[in-house]
Every structure is written in structure tokens, then in C-alpha cells.
Design goal:
The complex is a heterodimer of chains A (481) and B (157). Chain A is of the alpha/beta class. Chain A contains ten helices and 26 strands. The chains are: A alpha/beta (481), B mainly beta (157).
Chain lengths: 481, 157
């Protein structure tokens, strides 16, 4: 179902187009992802599990989980959540283990691109890094897998916290628009969308990355990208949770549903159970109310609400219950979610018998944390360590955001899960120092200002995890040197 | 560290709010329901009268009811939607609150009024509606004894 009226958003869906799903003619809009258009047409089962052939729906909506892979115009394994709908596309479900493409492609050869700084990821961290490097006279290439720039900002309809330097009080969606405009107007920056960085190779002159760009006919163009330094800002993926039937279509990542609802204006169902009361769980719940869905409950395993009180209060005012010391016991349903059972847990995380409650819902959202997407940075040989407070594996880096691999920088969620204001500041730092590594004169006074603001943002009780993570990372960095 | 009730419930009680005097209530003042140390301060910049202050970015906002004129500028700016303006005139109370849902009620419309837990505790008449930066700033007339309880509305449509 598509949302027609929304208190905050007006959806710019673009032209209405037709495409085929397993031979059946459906319609969508050209600014929609294929996955969103399918859900809007009531199709929630997208793939099957490898071993047991269990039905799978989409989960992340941002190209991270691979549960939406389909054959598009004969090409298998297309993540249809980051592929836009076009007139006449042929979309088909595939066997779990996909067969080779059913068509032949012309050899397009491999072209070489050169730049001072390559930025991988076009979220808040990557966009700020690109702008900062370009302001220091570096020639920049920024690439993103998705068909739009902005990363997670695109779905953040709420006003941001922080201070006015970080654009507090502005909505994430508006910040994304401003950054995009600045990027497009800056003639030192070249943007490659629908382009994935997949490899890293040794090179005598700086760094060499492999990049594949998806073209409109679903063929790919491969590039070698030579750069003097690189900022990797590939973001994070949502965590999963173990419980019976957790793979039923209808169990989604909270961020995945947020993408569907806020970016594409498509509703995955009517009644939601939210698992996790961190800021993501609370904010997404509120945004689902705004989109016209009913939020049945928020459950939280810890004895207290994880996110900000003000976000919780916004939900409570609409009568949404928040159950602390509760978890989801199971989800039930045939081919899709038809309900869930929640249960109270004691301080040793054991279920308390007799406290089960049935929740009548058709959507279950998991908001149980994010893990940094380290695949690309790990290819470079940068030292990667497991740091629980950072959300998982992260590349060790110094306070210029440079990893143990000289000239390779990280920023944003990839360098430790925090939030968008922090991602933007880290992006600026990485942009500045990557330009310096590329031989540009940079104004390091700005870096001191950025570090000061980062410190301020992390100063309170909610910044503690981030503080501990960064302290550990700095300590390990010193040990490495 | 012991848990505060609001950390479990997501609601605060009137006791946790610095109460304005009767004089202040007659003029109308902002009630700030933002009790945790979070990195946020747009409310401070929003107030044209310097009524809201904060020691540092992560401190809780402090309001000076003597300086506050009840103008409501801060209501739509606060990303936590945590600021309300209350006023008493005779037997009538007025609550100005942020509202980001559809439908946006119209002036003169009678709506249900809800407390911090979303329970309906009475009815009220909408006396003013403005939309700033896509946040509705809505004033509802209620029984004067309810101004510290009413924190949401629900159109009857
Ligand atoms: C529900 C929710 C609410 C939030 N609310 C707030 C808030 O109120 N305030 C706040 O400050 N923060 C908030 N955040 C956090 C904020 O969104 C993230 O911290 C921020 O977006 C991280 O930015 P990033 O640039 O590191 O990553 P992303 O925004 O995730 O961007 C990464 C980009 O990299 C691309 N990419 C990944 N791998 C490759 C590759 N191999 N090749 C090419 N491109 C690639 C991806 O497509 C993506 O676009 C929220 C997050 C969520 C999920
Ligand atoms: S109501 Fe007006 S005067 Fe009072 S704190 Fe808010 S902005 Fe300042
Ligand atoms: S703007 Fe709102 S959420 Fe932010 S500190 Fe002020 S009152 Fe709290
Ligand atoms: S990769 Fe498409 S839903 Fe996760």
C-alpha cells in the first residue's frame, strides 16, 4: 500500500512505469526501488532460504543483507532494494543458488579513473568527507551502491539533536538535500551511483580499488580507481535476533521498514511490534505512527528504556506501551507474520513463565543495534579489531581517522556505531586529512574545531559507549605504532 | 545507580517539573519536559528572550519563568517535541503543544485531550493552529486544572 498523505513528507515518486514480476505486469514509479514497488503490490515473499526453502522477505532495504536477491533482465543476484524500477524491467524470483546470467553481455573493457581522494559511501560521513576534501582542492570521486545519495539520512524525517553547527533542529531528509546540492555544485567532485567498490589492489602510486557500476540494461561496467588516499564510509548493517520464526516475511529490520515507509512511502502492514527501545526503535515507532500504522508495543530486554526519554515520551503520549524487561518469545504465521508472543524476563535474562502476552501484529521490527560494514576496509589490509562498544569489528584509527594502512581513512558508522551528527564531523576530519595525504595544503585549525565538537557531542551519559569505543581504538592504534 | 521511574515508563509526573507561579501561568510560560543529559540545545537558540539556558551541550535546559513570555517559538524547534506552553485565563486553561500527525485539526474543532500516557482525560477546543517547519503548533482550550496533564490531542474525525 502506498501512502497518499503524510504530515512531514511529500513523496516525489516520479513517472508511473510498468515492469514484470514472474511474467505478471505490475506498476511502480521510477523513483522507487524494485523491492518497494513489489511490497506496494502486496508481494512480501522475495526469496527462499538456501537449505530449507523457507520464505524470505526483505530485511534491511539498503543492500546489506542479500535477502531480496532476484533475477533482473536475466541477471541473477540483484539486490532489488537498491535497484530502481524502470519501464519494462523483467524481475523474477530465483532459486536460492542462482544460475548464471541467461544473457550474454558485450565486453565493455575496464576503464581507469584517477582522483586525489576516493570516497566510498555517500551517507552523511562520505558526503561531508567529499566536501571537505574538495574544499582543500582535492579532486574527489564519491561512490555509492544505491541509486540515490544520502545514505541513512534519506529516511530520517525527524529533527536532529546536537547544536546548530551540526544543523540541529533540521530534519535528516533536509540535511541530505543540502549536502547533495553542495556536492553536485562542486566541480571537483564526481559522483558514481549504483557503483560498488569490490576490491583493493596493491599499487606503486597510491591505492587502487576495483569498482563495478550497474548500467540501465543491467550489465556492469568495471573501473579501476587510482587514488592517493581514500575515505571509506560504508556505514553499518542491522543486527538480527534469534527466536522461532525470525525469518518469516514480516520480520524486518527497523531501518528497513523506515526506508520503505519514509523513502518510498510504502507500508509493509498495519500493526507493528517493535523490538528494542534504543533511539532507532523509538524514532522508527513514532515515524510509523506518522505514516498511519498502529504500533502495538515496544519491547526492551533491559530493565530500562535504551533511547532518549523525550523520544519515549512522544510515543507514550499516543498510548503506545513500552514493556521493559520483555523480549519476543516467538513469531507465528504461515507464510507471513500473523502475530507474536512477548514474555517478561528476569535479571538473568530467563523467561518468566506465565507472563506471555500475545500481540496481534503483521509486522515485527528488529531495532537491536547495528554492526559496522567492514568488508571493504578489511580488503585494504587495515588492522581490524572487535570492539563491543563500537558495535563489532572496526578498523583501528587515529584521531585523524586514518587506519593502520597509510592513506586509508574511515568515518561514520563504519568507524564505530554512533549517530549522524558524529558521522558528519568524522567525515570532515577524514576528508581534511585524506586531502593532506594526497599532498594538499590543509587548514588544520579546522580539525581542532571538529575534534572539540565531537568531544562535546560525546560528553554526556548517552555518549559513554562511543567514548569508551574511541578510547579503546586509540589505545590499540598506539600499540600498533 | 538506581533507576528513575521515567527510565522504565517513558513518562514523568508533575512533581518532576519546576512549577510556575500563578502570575507566570496567567501570562503563559513554556514547560520543558526534557530531563536527561542529551547532546542537544536548539531550544536555547530559539528563545528570543533568553529564557532558556544550558551550561553545556549535554546539560538539561533550564527555564527562567520570569523571562519567558509564553510566545511558543521554542515549541516547534525542539527535536524532542518536549516543550509545551501553558496559560490560565479565568476558568480556562490553554495548552500549546507540538503535533506532527494527520489530520491537523482546525480552529474551533473539539478534540479529545490526552495525558502523558495517551489516555483520554477530557475534551478541548482548538483555539490556534500554526505549522512551522512541518510541525503543527496547536493550542487547545481545556479545564484550567488540566493544563499540567494535557500533553496530546486526538481529533474525533
Ligand atoms: C532509525 C535511525 C535513526 C537515527 N536517528 C539519528 C538521529 O536522530 N541523529 C543522529 O545524529 N543520527 C541518527 N541515526 C544514525 C545515523 O543514521 C548514522 O549514524 C549515519 O547515517 C551514519 O552515516 P554513515 O555515512 O557512516 O553511513 P550510511 O548513512 O549508512 O552511509 C553508508 C553508504 O555507503 C554505501 N556503501 C556501503 N558499502 C559500499 C560499497 N562497497 N561501495 C559503494 N557504496 C557502499 C551505502 O549504500 C550507504 O549509502 C539514526 C539511524 C537510524 C537507523
Ligand atoms: S515560550 Fe517563547 S519566551 Fe518562553 S521559552 Fe519558549 S521561546 Fe522563550
Ligand atoms: S531542544 Fe528540546 S530536546 Fe533539545 S535540549 Fe531543548 S528541550 Fe531538550
Ligand atoms: S539487501 Fe535488499 S533487503 Fe537487504
Amino acid at each position: 500500500m502506498r501512502i497518499e498523505e503524510h504530515p512531514i513528507l511529500s513523496f516525489e515518486r516520479g513517472r508511473k512505469v510498468h515492469f514484470y514480476f514472474n511474467g505478471k505486469k505490475l506498476y511502480g514509479y521510477e523513483n522507487e526501488s524494485i523491492a518497494a514497488a513489489l511490497v506496494a503490490n502486496g508481494i512480501t515473499q522475495l526469496s527462499k532460504s538456501l537449505k530449507y526453502n523457507r520464505p524470505r522477505g526483505f530485511f534491511c532495504g539498503i543492500g546489506k543483507c542479500a535477502s531480496c536477491r532476484m533475477r533482473v533482465n536475466g541477471v541473477p543476484n540483484v539486490r532489488i532494494c537498491i535497484e530502481n524500477v524502470r519501464e519494462g524491467l523483467e524481475v523474477e524470483t530465483q532459486e536460492p543458488l542462482a544460475e548464471l546470467p541467461s544473457r550474454e553481455f558485450d565486453d565493455k573493457g575496464i576503464d581507469t579513473l584517477e582522483c586525489d581522494v576516493l570516497v566510498i559511501g555517500g551517507g552523511p560521513a562520505g558526503l561531508c568527507a567529499s566536501l571537505e576534501a574538495a574544499k582543500s582542492d582535492a579532486d574527489v570521486i564519491v561512490v555509492d551502491e544505491n541509486f540515490k545519495l544520502g545514505g541513512q539520512l534519506l529516511k530520517q524525517t525527524h529533527k536532529f539533536f546536537g547544536s546548530k553547527h551540526e544543523m540541529a533542529g533540521k530534519r535528516g531528509i533536509d540535511i541530505a538535500k543540502e549536502l547533495e546540492k553542495e556536492i553536485i555544485e562542486n566541480n571537483r567532485i564526481r559522483v558514481f551511483l549504483k557503483s560498488s567498490v569490490f576490491g583493493y589492489y596493491e599499487s606503486d602510486h597510491g591505492h587502487l580499488f576495483g569498482m563495478a557500476q550497474r548500467l540501465d540494461d543491467m550489465s556492469e561496467k568495471v573501473y579501476k580507481v587510482k587514488c592517493k588516499s581514500a575515505v571509506i564510509a560504508s556505514g553499518a548493517s542491522e543486527n538480527f535476533l534469534v527466536f522461532p520464526n525470525n525469518d518469516l516475511p514480516g520480520v524486518y529490520g527497523a531501518g528497513g521498514v523506515q526506508t520503505l515507509v519514509n523513502v518510498y512511502g510504502v507500508l509493509p502492514g498495519k500493526k507493528v511490534l517493535m523490538v528494542g527501545s534504543g533511539n532507532v526503535g523509538l524514532i522508527v515507532s513514532y515515524q510509523l505512527l506518522q505514516a498511519g500504522m498502529e504500533v502495538k508495543a515496544v519491547v526492551e530486554a533491559l530493565p530500562k528504556i535504551g533511547g532518549y526519554f523525550v523520544h519515549a515520551a512522544k510515543l507514550r503520549r499516543f498510548g503506545v506501551p513500552i514493556y521493559v524487561s520483555h523480549t519476543v518469545k516467538e513469531v507465528y504465521g504461515e507464510d507471513k507474520v500473523e502475530g507474536a508472543t512477548i514474555v517478561e524476563i528476569d535479571k538473568n535474562w530467563r523467561e518468566i513463565p506465565g507472563t506471555e502476552k500475545r500481540i496481534d501484529c503483521d509486522v515485527v521490527c528488529l531495532a537491536v543495534g547495528l554492526s559496522p560494514s567492514v568488508r571493504v576496509v578489511s580488503l585494504t589490509g587495515a588492522d581490524i579489531r572487535y570492539i563491543p562498544e563500537a558495535g563489532g569489528y572496526v578498523a583501528i584509527h587515529d584521531d585523524c581517522m586514518e587506519t593502520t594502512k597509510r592513506g586509508i581513512f574511515v568515518a561514520g558508522d563504519l568507524s564505530g556505531i554512533e549517530e549522524a551528527s558524529i558521522a558528519m564531523l568524522e567525515g570532515k576530519l577524514a576528508g581534511l586529512y585524506s586531502a593532506k595525504r594526497a599532498g594538499k595544503d590543509v587548514n588544520e585549525d579546522k580539525a581542532d574545531e571538529y575534534r572539540k565538537r565531537l568531544e562535546e557531542l560525546r560528553a554526556g551519559p548517552f555518549g559513554e559507549r562511543g567514548r569508551i569505543a574511541k578510547e579503546k581504538i586509540r589505545r590499540l592504534w598506539k600499540e600498533c605504532h | 545507580m538506581s533507576l528513575k521511574d521515567y527510565e522504565r515508563t517513558g513518562t514523568i509526573t508533575v512533581d518532576e517539573i519546576k512549577m510556575p507561579s500563578e502570575e507566570h501561568l496567567k501570562r503563559g510560560v513554556a514547560i520543558i519536559e526534557c530531563v536527561q543529559e542529551i547532546p542537544c540545545n536548539p531550544c536555547v537558540d530559539a528563545c528570543p528572550f533568553g529564557a532558556i539556558s544550558m551550561e553545556k551541550l549535554n546539560a538539561t535546559p533550564k527555564i527562567d519563568y520570569d523571562k519567558c513570555k509564553g510566545c511558543g517559538k521554542c515549541v516547534s524547534v525542539c527535536p524532542g517535541l518536549a516543550i509545551f506552553v501553558v496559560r490560565i485565563r479565568g476558568e480556562n486553561g490553554f495548552v500549546t503543544l507540538p503535533y506532527e500527525m494527520l489530520p491537523i485539526p482546525e480552529k474551533g474543532e473539539v478534540v479529545d485531550v490526552l495525558n502523558r500516557e495517551g489516555k483520554v482525560i477530557g475534551e478541548g477546543e482548538i483555539t490556534n493552529v500554526r505549522v512551522e517547519n512541518r510541525t503543527g503548533v496547536i493550542t487547545v482550550r481545556v479545564d484550567k486544572n488540566l493544563i499540567m496533564e494535557v500533553r496530546n490531542i486526538c481529533p474525533k474525525r
